Amino acid sequence: MSAQTPPTLLKLARQALLRDETLDMSALDKLPMELLPALFKEALTGRHTTTVKAMVAAWPFPCLPVGALMKTPYLETFKAVLAGVDTWLQRKFHPRRGKLQFLDLRKKYHEFWSIWAGVEDGDCSVENQDEQQVVKVLPKYALRLLLKVVADLCLRPRVDDEQTCFLQWAQQRKGSIQFCCMKMTIWIQPVHVIKEVLKVFHPEHIREFELNTEWNIFMLAWFAPCLGQMRNLHKLLLAPVSKNIKIGNRTTDMEDKCINKFISQFSRFNCLQHLSFRRVYFLRNRIKRVLSKQGWRAGCLMTPLETLSITHYNISQSDLNYFSECPKLFQLKHLDMKGVGLKALDLMPLRVLLEKVADTLQSLDMKCCRMKDSHLIVLIPALSKCSQLAKVSFYCNDFSMPILRNLLQHTANLSKMNVEQYSAPLECYDDFGYVSTESFTQLCQEMKCRLRALRQPKYISFATNMCPRCGEPCVYDQEFRLCHCQQR
Ligand SMILES: [Zn+2]
Known about the structure:
alpha/beta; 15-stranded mixed β-sheet
């Protein structure tokens, strides 16, 4: 194939090949390599299952990121890909050098297809560097001998057909293929099912793990050793979806043991950067054990965190006190405490933390923390130093007009600020807690003008609490949007 061949001819050639029912592995082995990526794309989108299967079996590149092309699921082509892998495994002789090492089923963009689109456009100078270029986009672990299959898994009570088919297929081939799951999300599955899946997809490969379960603390303790094996986790979200997991202020000895067993696994995460706990009631009074070096087991959380998200449950004063002492938090970029009731707490430790992260913190979410003026006044001196802050949210707190003015005055020099969300001042409500639209519009406008005089806000909004009648807030951003009943 000449370098100057016009793309239209290539397209015609591909169409002719796709019409050829006799196209098999031996014919594919003889085709120019640069023709194959585009041919494969067309075979896949055209649902030519026989050709897809033959092409996977004859694939001459080390990498086949097929998931990027399968964002719209179609079970038959997916099965054809898996059947192609089976044939590939059975082939004794692979005539081309760059034998398949890595099958990527993740449904995300992959550089491979862009590189080869360049070749399709006639830039054949890439031809001699093809393997080098492709290898560049391969993760390190793909360069070993066994074929690796990488996938993201979302385990729900009713798993979709494609994933059911894939899990069964993987289960039967766990001896001959190395399976890696990079991102695993679990939605309410029995623990034993997840343990079976983790026998095929070894926990040490998981980078992102999300646990949204109804498991009680005894089940979590049973699962704990699997969690501990996820040594390469970068991102962890724990979010029990049911109140079944709620544990009162007093726990039994047995519950304590289970909680401690679960928390002790945190010492094994070598490279955790993003940690989120949503409604994890049993961690109240135990944050230090999760984050501390001197915690349950020496060496908890080896790396500094970029994201800490503790939301929708109440932490204790001792939890908050530890925020100011924990070096693992001193490089935070994102702090999310939405829905954490702070009304009864002394926020001085939070102020100390904000001072420590003043050069790194980019986003701060303190929605629905029920803070009052006396809380915000503690935080303002530290907030004014957070030079990297680009996004703040203080929706659903109880602040008066003077303290909001004070806040805006003190954050005037934060030049990176993109998104600012404030709760509407208390002066907007009448004695019965209903919003007075007149005060709301007038006070919000005044604050926006005030801020405009200090710096150019990019996106600023004010919102009232949820209206007790219709359950919606009134919002002022580019315009006023009143709650449902105020619109009438
Ligand atoms: Zn309303």
